Amino acid sequence: MHGTAMSGWLLMALCAVTGAYCLLRTRSETGEGRRTARAEALMGFGMAAMAVPAAVVTPPAWGWVVYAALFGAASLRALWFSRHSSHHLHHLVGSSAMVYMALVMAPGGGGAHGGHGAHAGHGVAASAGGIPVLTGLLLAYYAVYVLRSGARLIPVSATAGSGGGERAGDGWGAWPELALACRLTMGIAMFAMLLTL
Question: What is the pTM of this model?
């Protein structure tokens, strides 16, 4: 994400498409699946907004407070719903990571040097880094998550292909391998965003 704005645009597009698919999934899911799809859509759109190249749109100083408040509320929601599903613990980590990045990227938040510099995402200069130990732990978490999600995607594709093309329901939301691919995509995007800190 350092250098040209192209990587920022690509990351933004990837996250926006992922968020749109997750939003589409909310129509075909019910109960816990719908809550999960909503949380993933919020994460996808939030990541897309954070990835917009700063050379194009410089967010106002209060924008980072909005990000932090929005994902702080999402963290509390994920904590509440983690009683029913352990997958919400992943949403808790993701939402908390978004709060952390918003605080680091905010002007005067320890990450920005008064401007947005030359990197493709908003705010953080290469020497900033936030809290190195926390950034490192989040990077390790997402590296493991991406590898694990990628490994889980392979057997699902093989199983889905051998089932005669039948799906549990109608529409795009009934394809479990697409939901896994979206989670993998957001994990990779989060890893890339954390690398810019």
Answer: 0.78
